TrEMBL record:
<dbReference type="InterPro" id="IPR018490">
    <property type="entry name" value="cNMP-bd_dom_sf"/>
</dbReference>
<protein>
    <submittedName>
        <fullName>Crp/Fnr family transcriptional regulator</fullName>
    </submittedName>
</protein>
<dbReference type="InterPro" id="IPR036388">
    <property type="entry name" value="WH-like_DNA-bd_sf"/>
</dbReference>
<dbReference type="InterPro" id="IPR014710">
    <property type="entry name" value="RmlC-like_jellyroll"/>
</dbReference>
<feature type="domain" description="Cyclic nucleotide-binding">
    <location>
        <begin position="11"/>
        <end position="70"/>
    </location>
</feature>
<keyword id="KW-0010">Activator</keyword>
<dbReference type="InterPro" id="IPR000595">
    <property type="entry name" value="cNMP-bd_dom"/>
</dbReference>
<dbReference type="Pfam" id="PF00027">
    <property type="entry name" value="cNMP_binding"/>
</dbReference>
Length: 194
C-alpha cells in the first residue's frame, strides 16, 4: 500500500522513485478498526495520519454532548490537528475511524528529526500543507455562501462517495442541517439513501 503514498508524494516533489521509496520505507503503516478514536477532544495531538484506505471523521463535542462534524478524510488525504497557536496545545477536535483504516502514522515528536534525515521531506510537506490549506479555505468560503441544498449538491459533486460511506446524521451535521432536512433535500434531488 505504500505505493499509494509514493504516488501522492510525486505530486509535490521531483525526487526520484528511489528517494521517494526510501522516505516511504521509513514510515509506520498501521491498521485501525472501525470505531477507533485516533484523538479525543482535549488531548494533546502527538500523531498525524495519511489515509491509504478508510474514512476518518473530525468532530467536536459541546458541553451538552452534541456532536458537530467538521470534516471527513478519505484515501490520499492527510489528517493533522494544528494547534500550536493555542496555549495548552490541546485539540478542539476528535478523530474517529468510520471504517477500518490503513494509515501512515507520523510521530509529531520526531518531526524535525525526520526532516533532518530527509531534507526534501520538509519542502514536500510544506507543499502538501499549502495545498490542503488552500482547499480548506475554498471549501469554507463555498460553505458560508451556499444554501443547505447547494451544500448538498456540492457534496455530491466534489465528494460523491461519502454519501455511501458515512451515516446520514453525520453528513447532515457536516452540512449544517438536521437529519430531517438532509432527508428532504435528498428526496427532492432523487439521491439514494446512504
Amino acid at each position: 500500500m505504500k505505493d499509494v503514498l509514493i504516488s501522492y508524494m510525486k505530486q509535490f516533489s521531483d525526487l526520484s522513485d528511489a528517494e521517494l521509496d526510501r522516505i516511504a520505507s521509513d514510515v509506520e503503516v498501521a491498521r485501525f478498526d472501525k470505531g477507533t478514536h485516533l484523538l479525543h477532544q482535549g488531548d494533546v495531538p502527538d500523531r498525524c495520519f495519511f489515509i491509504l484506505k478508510g474514512c476518518i471523521r473530525k468532530f467536536t463535542l459541546d458541553e451538552d454532548g452534541k456532536e458537530t462534524t467538521v470534516n471527513f478524510y478519505t484515501e490520499e488525504q492527510s489528517v493533522t490537528i494544528f494547534n500550536q497557536h493555542t496555549s495548552d496545545k490541546t485539540s478542539q477536535y476528535s478523530l474517529g475511524c468510520l471504517e477500518e483504516c490503513v494509515l501512515v502514522v507520523g510521530d509529531l515528536s520526531i518531526e524535525q528529526e525526520q526532516y533532518d534525515k530527509n531534507p526534501a521531506l520538509e519542502a514536500m510537506t510544506r507543499k502538501m500543507i499549502e495545498g490542503s490549506m488552500g482547499e480548506m479555505h475554498d471549501e469554507f468560503a463555498t460553505y458560508m455562501s451556499q444554501t443547505p441544498e447547494a451544500r448538498f449538491r456540492t457534496l455530491l459533486e466534489k465528494r460523491p462517495g461519502l454519501i455511501d460511506r458515512v451515516p446520514k446524521y453525520q453528513l447532515a451535521s457536516y452540512l449544517g442541517i438536521t437529519p430531517e432536512s438532509f432527508s428532504r433535500i435528498q428526496k427532492r434531488l432523487g439521491n439514494p439513501q446512504p
